[in-house]
Write a structure and sequence with these properties.
By secondary structure, this protein is mainly beta. 3% of the residues lie in helices and 34% in strands.
């Protein structure tokens, strides 16, 4: 992942509410929603939903396959907030020896590591390398091929 992949969030993004008629959609069949719900006038603006602090938020495009088991695939867009203090369990964007990576922050034996979702990738010992957290991943935008 290169530094060129960083795209800052717009400090005052234009509002773009889109129709959002149903409050809950289930993956299975559990009955039919009322047709009247389609006309409730509800909208959803993804900027409001996903960007909590525009000044500290940036977007990145993922490369590689090390995080697929955690639902992050090559080509996905990450919404990253640099104002969130990283805690174990968070997925981070970090610079490790000058290379940007997306990994999960974990404590193993009370030592900080960056781990992937794929056991074939070894954990990165964060304390032993030049490592700096750039931000915590707040959301992943994953598009399905059509």
């Amino acid at each position: 992942m290169s530094h060129d992949a960083l795209i800052p969030a717009h400090l005052a993004p234009p509002s773009m509410p889109l129709p959002f008629p149903l409050t809950l959609t289930r993956g299975g069949l559990s009955g039919f929603p009322s047709p009247a719900q389609d006309y409730e006038g509800r909208t959803l603006d993804l900027n409001e939903r996903l960007v909590k602090r525009a000044a500290s938020t940036f977007f990145m495009t993922v490369t590689g396959d090390s995080m697929e088991a955690l639902g992050i695939h090559a080509g996905d867009i990450l919404v990253v907030d640099s104002a969130i203090e990283p805690r174990p369990g968070h997925i981070l964007v970090a610079s490790v020896e000058g290379e940007l990576v997306v990994k999960r922050y974990e404590l193993l034996g009370n030592r900080p590591y960056l781990t992937s979702g794929d056991p074939s990738y070894r954990p990165i010992p964060a304390a032993d390398l030049e490592c700096q957290a750039w931000g915590v991943v707040r959301a992943v935008v994953h598009e399905y091929p059509v």
